[in-house]
Amino acid sequence: MHVIQQQQIENKLKMPQGGKMKLDWRLVLVMVLSLGLMVSCDSTEDEEEDTAFEVLTKYMVDNSYDADVVIADWITTAAAVTGNEANYFIVDIRSAEKFAEGHIPGAVNSAYADILTTVETLNTSDLPVLVACYSGQSAAHAVVALRLSGYTDAKTLMWGMSSWAMGFDSWSGAISSHAVGHANWSMDAPPALLSDMDDPVLTTDLTDGAAILAERVDAILGGFKGIASTEVIAAPENFQVNNFWALSDWEHYGHIAGAYQVTPGTLTIANDGLDILDPSQTIVTYCWTGQTSSMMTAWLTALGYDAKSLKNGANSMIYDALESHKWVALTADLPME
């Protein structure tokens, strides 16, 4: 049809015999528009712009902020720190009152929400940052915020200040075996993982990956995102529960009914590991002590998921059954100021 239309236009523009061609500009305009339509018939639709989530995750992968990098070599022990305090910039995020009762030599006190400002302002020697809290769980959240902000060697003090002084023990009162024999503690095989889940929707006006990540770090620093094991095991169907153990441990100890077995290290952006997460659910991750799950929860929060860490991990559910990864109370204090 385009060929016929073009021929008709050419015929109308032919020069009369023995005379000069008279141009009808209206006809010329019709011809130009017609040719434009022919070209547009072959054009493709413009590509859609990336969503904020896609911009963020691409930036995180390109800058080594994927989970397998952020959650690597992130914890150290009181035994490794004592005597070597000068090798760290130590930030204690407990209350000012508790800090005044005693703290690691050389430590500075900071509110959890202010830790980035504290480190940026006071860490003038650019030492590796060590974060101490009560149990090691909120410190793990803070360490993810730091690592996603460029402090990639930041670490958590394992077990928190409970591992430094007997008077600061917040763990002994948190251990429990209430899940042993519970109807919602299961020995079943792991259910098939979800697949091809939608991405979270990030509400932001920002379009730059670095700026979006900074905004999401602020979301992490809005508060520790934990949940009690009693609440989860009472109604596991209200959550997407992810067990962050190796399969051999899952089979040995059992698990919360309906939980998914997610092998540590597989939940990354680069290998499409996030496809198993349902953004419409509250995603509860649990591990042995609540410290690794706190790291994972903070990282998922940065990505826009409604994520929570099961407080104190398996130590708060099946303590008596555990053969390792158990809290053991101190018998002596380490030096304090």
| Low-pLDDT windows of residues | 1-23, 37-45
How far the N terminus sits from the C terminus, by CA atoms, comes to 90 Å
Helical residues, percent: 25-40%
Shape: flat
Number of helices: 12
From the alpha carbons, calculate the radius of gyration and give it in angstroms.
Answer: 30 Å
Overall pLDDT metric:
90
Largest beta-sheet characterization: 5 strands, parallel
Please identify the structural class as seen in this structure: alpha/beta
Strand numbers in spatial order across the main sheet: 1-5-4-2-3
Number of strands: 12
User: What sequence of helices (H) and strands (E) makes up the elements?
Assistant: HHHHEHEHEHEHEEHEHEHEEEHE
Beta-strand percentage range: 5-15%
Features of the shown structure:
five-stranded parallel sheet, 12 strands, flat, disordered N terminus
SSE layout and pairings?
Elements: H1 2-12, H2 25-41, H3 52-62, H4 67-70, E1 75-76, H5 78-81, E2 89-92, H6 96-101, E3 108-109, H7 115-122, E4 129-132, H8 137-147, E5 155-157, E6 185-186, H9 209-220, E7 226-227, H10 229-234, E8 240-243, H11 247-253, E9 255-256, E10 260-261, E11 283-286, H12 291-302, E12 307-310
Parallel strand pairs: 1-5, 2-3, 2-4, 4-5, 7-12, 8-10, 8-11, 11-12
Antiparallel strand pairs: 6-9
Helix pairs in contact: 1-2, 3-9, 8-12, 9-12
